[in-house]
Each structure stands twice: as C-alpha cells, then as structure tokens.
Amino acid sequence: MSKSAESLSTFLFHFLERLNDYESIEKKVMGSLTDICDYCGFKRGFVYQTDGFRYFYLKETVGNEDNTLRSRFEMGEMTKQHLARTKDKKEPFCVDGHEGSSLADIDIMDFYKVKSLLIRHFEDTEGKIIGFIGFADREEGASSFTKEESQAIYLALGALSKEISIREYKEREVRASKTLGSIMNNMGVDIYVNSFDSHDMLYANEAMAAPYGGIEHFEGKKCWQALYTDKTGECEFCPKRHLIDENGLPTKVYSWDYQRPFDKCWFRVFSAAFAWIDGQMAHVITSVDIDHQKKIEEELRIAKEKAENLDRLKSAFLANMSHEIRTPLNAIVGFSSLLINSVEPSEELQEYANIIQTNSNLLLQLISDVLDVSRLESGKLQFNYEWCELVTHCQNMITLTNRNKTTNADVRLQMPKEPYMLYTDPLRLQQIIINLLNNALKFTPAGGSITLDYTVDKEKQCMLFSVTDTGTGIPEDKQELVFQRFEKLNEFVQGTGLGLAICKLTIQYMGGDIWIDKDYKGGARFIFSHPIKERESTEK
C-alpha cells in the first residue's frame, strides 16, 4: 500500500534533516539506512564502499544479523547486465523476486543473496563507481513503489550518497597520507622540504629527523637552523641557484656530496624545486648514506697510489737491475769472445767459452724481455707510428732471420706481393714477426720450411699476418698456454719463455690480437691482426 503524499513529504523532510545534523557520518548512515528500511518495509539496509584499490567492502549494514550479505566483492564479479542496471541514472534499481522477474534480475538478486533488492550506486568526480547503497528482502505483499515514492527514494539516496562520497574522499586523503608517509619513511633515504624563499621547514621524514632527536627538532625552524648550530643565515653552498631558470621555473635535479657536521657521515644529496601543496615554490632534498662508499673510494684511492708507487719502484728496480747486470754480463760476453778468438785455444776451453757466451746472451735476452713486459704493462713502452712499405720491410726481416739462423730451414716470404703502405710502428712490428720466425726455427727441423704471409681483410679493416712452419706443431693441451709468461713447450730448447707473451701484449697494445690456427695440422701457424687505415691524399 502506497504512502500518502503527506507522510512521504514528512519522511523526506526528516531524512534530509538528519543528513544536515552535526552527528558523525557513521551515525547519519546507520540512521538513514534504518529510516528507509522502516518506511519502505525492507529487512536489510547496507552500504558497500571501495577500499580504493580492488574490493568493495560491506561498510555499514542493518538487519544483517544472519550475515547473509557478502562481506566484499570485486567489480569484475558483476555481470554486464548487473552493472548496466546498477548504473541507471534515472532511478534506483529495484526488483522483486516474483514470478515475472527476468533471468538478469534473478542473477542480480543471487549476487547479493537476497530475495528482493533496491540499490543505487554512487561515483567520484571522474565517474568511477566508489560504492553502493542498497536495501533487500522487502516485506511480502508490499505494493510496488509509486512514481512519487521512487522519486523520493531516489532523492533521499542521492543525498545520502553525497554524504558517503565526502567520507570516501576524506578516507582517500587519509589513505593517501598514510601511504605517502609510509613510503617516505621506508625508502631508506633522508627527505626534507623547505620553503624556497623563506627557508622555513615544511616537512621531514622519520629517517631525516631521527639523528636530530625527532620531527619536533624541525618544527618552526629555518633549514639552516635545524641542520647547523653555527649558521645565522642561508648556507653559502645552498643549491637554490641550480634549481630554477631565469624565469623562476624548476630545472633539473641537482646532486652533490655532503658531510654531516656532527658525525662526519657522507651523503649523496639530490635537490629539486617544485610547487608545494599551498602553491608556494618549495625545495625538496633527498639524501642517501654513502659513508661506506666514501670509505671504499678512499681505500681505493690509497690502494691506487700504493700500486702506482709500487709500479714506479718496480720500474726503477728493473731498470737498475738491467744496468747492474748488463755491465758485468757485457764484460763476460766480451771476454768469452776474446777467449774463443784467441790463438789456438784447447778444444775444452773452446767449449767452455761457447757455453759462457751462449748463456750470457740468453741472460741478456731475458733481461730485455722482462723489461719489455714491464714497460708494456705500465704503458711506458714507446710506440712510434709511421707509414711503412710492407713488402720491403718483410723482405728485410726474412733476410735478417736467414742470416742469423742456426738450422737449415727455408725461411721465406710468400710471393708475389703488391706494394702496400701500412701505418704502424716498424720496430714493434719487426719485433713481433722476428720473434715468431725465431720461435718457428726452434721447432722446425733441417729441410723444413717457415713462411711469412699477409693479407688484407677489408671487412674487418685489418691486416692479417701469418707465420707457418712445418715443425713439430703444438699439442692441443698447450695451445691455450703458449702466450703465458715463462711457458715453454720444450724445456730443452733455449729461450726465455717470454717471446710469445711479449708478442701478444705488443700487438694488443697496437689494436690487434694474436692466435694459433687450430685447423692447421702440418706444423704450427700463428696469425695476428693489425689495424689498417687509409692514407690521406696529402700523404700519398
């Protein structure tokens, strides 16, 4: 049975009067839910409100002692028909569970686990649903709402939804404030904000305030008053000038390292200008503790200085050793030569003199190699680049090798070759190739051959040199070791064990590399690359 117009007006008047009262929003909501339930004959009244993220929670309810209503749900659980009916702007969604109800209506009632339903959603300013006000399980036999009753209910629920929306906004602010505060206090960095012009402290997080005794220390103070005991005005190193442009607009983040005065801890500080909540220009400062990093940097600096000093001492020691050892060795070599060339020395004396001379020369070579390795590692070996005609240079190296060789092996340059100008250090290039040729001679028997070859790789912009022999070859387990220092394939073959290591260090310093051709099985083949470049027209 429908209500009289007078009773409807009275209900509406008292309903709106309640909303305008000074009671808490919770009391207003509960009272309003009770009033509508009593007036319209519903057993249950409820409010679902968003948590701001994912769920709608049952915020308030009356008549739900049996806990029939859902405690929470997600928007995604609602069907399209459900959502469309709920969003109807004209009037609240109302349905009774009589025989004429559609399947969609029955589905909606089943969603809330009720037998009849009146529900209205409410939105935020962006049109996003933030809650529902609903009533369920109306008394049996209750007549349908008249047009006037529907309008009155719609008006009442609209007014109530505004009150709940205001609460939602306030709760959002609280959640946002708590979330922001939690983030600010658990980021692992110190943060504070001060007024750009007046330097008044506006905010400090817990991490920033803790070493100073708490937030109270910053209240009502200028930034320099809070952070220092000896400042009477703006700090001379204040980063303000770095944070705004000539128009007074914020620029990029400015960073510097800062040492806290009372405990000497180091921090990396990041400053930026931005608009504070009241519109004024503010200065935000975040700082990260880098004290451990600073200590490591200082340790590394000291270690570097020590290493550089040790390197200088090593170089001085090697140079002095070279001088001190070379002097008596040169005398030994000289006098052994005189002994060898003396008039009719005995066969035994001749043998002894040859041994002295051979080992003295080997020791001199070892000293030179050690010094070369030291200079290469320290970057002190001199490189003098110039344009070099490669064919002539290689032929000269072949001639020199053949002149000094002690075995009857054929050493040759692969011919024919077109003239080629290479920008290189001729002396260092010769040192590499001669070393490879002499190394090949040690392991190539009489009657064998050693070939020097080179080709241009235009794609990789380099010259590829190769020294190929028909000797004993290099075992696979030794191929990765031959470029290591003092590594010798045969302990009975004379040498310092540094020649190939020097080759590798030298060619790498020149921008190339060296390796063994693992596919060649007829002996050994060493290949090294050397960068090439085009000559300028003025150089031709």
CATH class of the largest domain: Alpha Beta
Largest sheet: 6 strands, antiparallel
Mean pLDDT: 82
Shape: elongated
Report strand order across the widest sheet.
3-2-1-6-5-4
Helix/strand/pairing class, anyone?
alpha+beta
Descriptive notes:
The protein is elongated and about 150 Å long. The chain has helices at 5-19, 25-40, 80-86, 103-112, 147-185, 206-209, 223-227, 240-243, 291-340, 347-378, 390-404, 426-442, 499-509, and strands spanning 42-50, 55-62, 72-74, 93-96, 116-123, 129-138, 190-195, 201-204, 254-259, 266-275, 281-289, 386-389, 410-413, 421-424, 449-457, 462-469, 514-516, 524-531. It folds into 4 domains: 5-181, GAF domain (Beta-Lactamase, 2-Layer Sandwich), CATH 3.30.450; 190-289, Beta-Lactamase; 297-378, Orthogonal Bundle (Helix Hairpins); 386-539, Heat Shock Protein 90 (2-Layer Sandwich). It contains 13 helices and 18 strands. The model has no long low-confidence stretch (mean pLDDT 82). A hairpin with a 4-residue loop joins strand 1 and strand 2. Helices cover 42% and strands 22% of the residues. 23% of the residues are buried. By secondary structure, the chain is of the alpha+beta class. The longest helix has 50 residues, at 291-340. Strands 3-2-1-6-5-4 form a 6-stranded antiparallel beta sheet, covered by helices on one side. The termini are far apart.
Keywords:
single chain, 540 residues, alpha+beta, Beta-Lactamase, 6-stranded antiparallel β-sheet, 5-stranded antiparallel β-sheet, elongated
